């Protein structure tokens, strides 16, 4: 810095009296009194520099904290979206368990609806329901109903606390184990079974699935039904639950023996 000032003064010196704003003698006196060591030994300047450095440190720490919070918030939002997406998928699969298998959530422009008429929105669902009338339908057809009566009587006579449920969603009684597979694999596997239903689910006194019973009517021999049954059979096998398939023309005594054997009961001990 001293050399720079000397060069500046040297440039002004030949100008003589034209340099009234920067007199040569005054600059020379300033240079003779100036010392860099005195500048850096001055505690005032050292304190100022230290305070500025600490200020930048605080600013950097605050910036890192803000970035950390932003990343955490985004991760939480992504996790919630994934959870909501899984729940919505499960809800949509349940909606497809009707005779209207080709009906899918749709969007239509209507000023009275929310979100361009998205059928998955609860407010829109109420609006859609208000526009039509409903009627009840049979849970079981005429061929399946006799099998329900047989299973109910058989379990009552066994007296072990078992109950039979009809048209039960697999997603309500099975779930993937959390110890195997990625989160995506578990979600996909659950979505694969949640849309499937058991004709009859026999549960024990604790409410756990003990036996699955499928009535093999005429509709079970189509290609799609065959694939659905294969998915159900494999999921039940991995859950260590037996799946009993009952033909359309079944014999009562045969079904009794098969059900009791699958549940580990003695046929002779069951009261009639």
Q: Which labels suit this protein?
A:
single chain, 272 residues, alpha+beta, 4-stranded mixed beta sheet, 4 strands, elongated
Tell me what the structure shows.
This protein is α+β, with helices and mostly antiparallel strands. Helix content is 54%, strand content 10%. The protein has ten helices and four strands, in the order H-H-H-H-H-H-E-H-H-E-E-H-E-H. The chain has a four-stranded mixed β-sheet with strand order 1-2-3-4, with helices on both faces.
Sheet with the most strands, sense and barrel status: 4 strands, mixed
> What structural class should be given to the helix and strand makeup?
alpha+beta
Tally the helices: what do you get? 10
The proportion of residues forming helix, as a percent range, comes to 40-55%
Strand order of the largest sheet: 1-2-3-4
The pLDDT mean sits at 76
Distance between the termini: 112 Å
| Strand residue percentage | 5-15%
The value of Rg in angstroms is: 41 Å
Sequence stretches where pLDDT stays below 50 over 5 or more residues = 11-24, 97-109
What is the H-and-E element order?
Answer: HHHHHHEHHEEHEH
Q: Brief overview, please?
A:
The chain is of the alpha+beta class.
Task: Give the SSE layout.
Blueprint: H1 2-12, H2 24-33, H3 36-41, H4 43-95, H5 122-130, H6 145-158, E1 163-169, H7 170-173, H8 183-194, E2 197-203, E3 209-216, H9 223-238, E4 243-247, H10 252-262
Parallel strand pairs: 3-4
Antiparallel strand pairs: 1-2, 2-3
Helix pairs in contact: 1-2, 4-8, 6-10
């Amino acid at each position: 810095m001293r050399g720079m000032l000397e060069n500046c003064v040297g440039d002004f010196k030949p100008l003589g009296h034209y340099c009234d704003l920067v007199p040569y003698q005054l600059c020379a006196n300033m240079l003779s009194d100036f010392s860099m060591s005195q500048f850096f030994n001055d505690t005032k300047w050292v304190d100022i520099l230290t305070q500025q450095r600490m200020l930048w440190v605080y600013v950097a720490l605050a910036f890192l904290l803000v970035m950390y919070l932003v990343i955490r918030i985004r991760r939480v939002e992504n996790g919630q979206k994934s959870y909501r997406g899984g729940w919505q998928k499960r809800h949509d699969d349940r909606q497809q368990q009707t005779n209207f298998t080709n009906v899918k959530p749709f969007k239509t422009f209507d000023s009275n609806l929310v979100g361009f008429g998205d059928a998955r929105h609860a407010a829109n669902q109420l609006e859609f329901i208000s526009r039509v009338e409903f009627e009840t339908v049979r849970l079981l057809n005429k061929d399946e109903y006799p099998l329900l009566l047989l299973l109910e009587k058989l379990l009552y006579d066994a007296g072990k606390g078992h109950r039979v449920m009809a048209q039960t969603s697999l997603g309500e009684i099975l779930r993937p184990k959390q110890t195997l597979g990625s989160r995506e694999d578990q979600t996909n596997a659950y979505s694969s079974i949640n849309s499937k239903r058991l004709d009859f689910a026999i549960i024990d006194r604790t409410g756990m699935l003990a036996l699955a019973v499928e009535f093999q009517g005429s509709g079970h021999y189509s290609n799609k039904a065959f694939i659905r049954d294969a998915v159900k059979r494999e999921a039940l096998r991995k859950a260590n639950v037996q799946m009993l398939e009952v033909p359309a023309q079944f014999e009562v005594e045969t079904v009794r023996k098969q059900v009791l054997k699958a549940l580990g009961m003695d046929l002779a001990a069951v009261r009639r």
